[in-house]
Amino acid sequence: MGLIVQKYGGTSVADTDRIKAVAERAVATANEGNQVIVVVSAMAGETDKFTQYAHEITESPKEREMDMLLSSGERVTSALMAMAITELGIESMSFTGRQVGIKTDSSHTRAMIESIEASRLTIALDEGKIPVVAGFQGINEFSDVTTLGRGGSDTTAVAIAAALEADACEIYTDVEGVYTADPRVVPDARKMDRVSYDEMLEMASLGAKVLHGRSVEFAKKYNVPLVVRSSFNNMPGTLVTKEDGLMENIVVTGLAHDKNQARITLIGVPDKPGIAAAVFKAIGEENINVDMIVQNISVQDSATDISFTVSKSDGKKAFGIAQNVSEKLGTKGVNMNDDVAKVSIIGVGMQSHFGVAAQMFDILSKAGVNIMMISTSEIKISCVIEESKAETAVKVLHKSFNLASV
Ligand code: ADP
Ligand code: MG
């Protein structure tokens, strides 16, 4: 007997038949003697449909209104799921983020969970019910609805599991677990039985959307046993867990790619102190996340170039800011390229193996993929490349690092 949090993603609850199928799984888990909390996403396609509506009305909808709009998708699924579970003979009750006390900061559309006051969940469980929580949402200090960003229902589930010290958090999705690369891009990608929190964190933040990055952070911090598995069959899935000695033996565990990237370059920036600070302060003030930064050393005319990447959706805004700053600083100009992608290789074993970066660059160059920017950490290497080469790059890296057969 344990407490299990089960999260079901959009494809897993795409229509009422899927909702009924998922309800059966939750009920079966309860009938094995467990307490079960279900967290649901919006039905597949709903979030995109709502976003489309908003853009039919305005080019720049207020983020507060977007949160109000998008959070309704999860609310629909939670009510339908509670009905489906009740129909199978176990009492169920749906809850919004607000009703289960999920407090977040005020960054609309990408809010961070600050606390959970889950007493209503505990009461429902004590009454023998299966609570169903609308994922992806919380409220801020003004009781306004906030959302946690794409994939945020994963974080709702893990945060609830952490708050209630659940025995497991199961993320049900449309693939059988975490693969060495996106299985939709690399057909022979291999499903991993286990992956460390740190590797998963890198994979998620570098573009493997199978888990929301914040959910992995929570899982690591509170030691939540996290399992990713399919809602369409009974395969065991992937366990995301603490690193162990065996994992160190594998140099490259997996790779990720992210097409949601834009590169901005300030050309001919005067080479004097304080310039980089001025640029990135202005960008930071607009809450735009800068990912990679490269500044060349000026060789000839005491002017240099500064390039950085942001997510594609922030591209236009960041470009505007860069243009403003650039005029004040007297640079030669600014350009933006949003036909770029980032490919990354990840593995805790890189810490103890040399030459991995060189190998990666060699593989890419032999495949005719030009590298525009590079960034590294102890357990990952990322390259910015042309967007149209992203799939090729992922495939050839996957093959050359022998990921299919490890
Ligand atoms: P859900 O709606 O269930 O949350 P997502 O679409 O958010 O599902 O995440 C699952 C998808 O993540 C898969 O369909 C797959 O295409 C993609 N994906 C990307 N990288 C990976 C990876 N390394 N392992 C598994 N799936 C991945
Ligand atoms: Mg997801």
Q: Helical element count?
A: 11
Q: Which percent range describes the beta-strand content?
A: 25-35%
- Major sheet characteristics: 8 strands, mixed
Classification by helices and strands: alpha/beta
Bound molecules: adenosine-5'-diphosphate, magnesium ion
Please tally the β strands and state the result: 18
Instruction: Provide the gyration radius in Å.
Output: 23 Å
Helix content: 25-40%
Please state the overall shape, judged from the principal axes of the Cα atoms. Answer: globular
- Strand arrangement within the widest β-sheet reads 3-6-2-1-9-11-12-10
Helix and strand run: EHEHHEEEHEEEHEEHHEEEHEEHEHEEH
Unreliable runs: none
Provide mean pLDDT, rounded. 95
Taking the alpha carbons of the first and last residues, their distance comes to 36 Å
Topology:
Elements: E1 3-8, H1 16-31, E2 35-40, H2 46-57, H3 63-87, E3 92-95, E4 102-104, E5 113-116, H4 119-126, E6 130-134, E7 137-139, E8 145-147, H5 152-163, E9 168-173, E10 194-196, H6 197-205, H7 213-221, E11 226-230, E12 238-241, E13 254-270, H8 275-285, E14 293-295, E15 303-311, H9 312-329, E16 333-346, H10 356-366, E17 371-377, E18 380-386, H11 390-400
Parallel strand pairs: 1-2, 1-9, 2-6, 3-6, 9-11, 10-12
Antiparallel strand pairs: 4-5, 7-8, 11-12, 13-15, 13-16, 14-15, 16-18, 17-18
Helix pairs in contact: 1-3, 2-3, 5-7, 6-7, 8-9
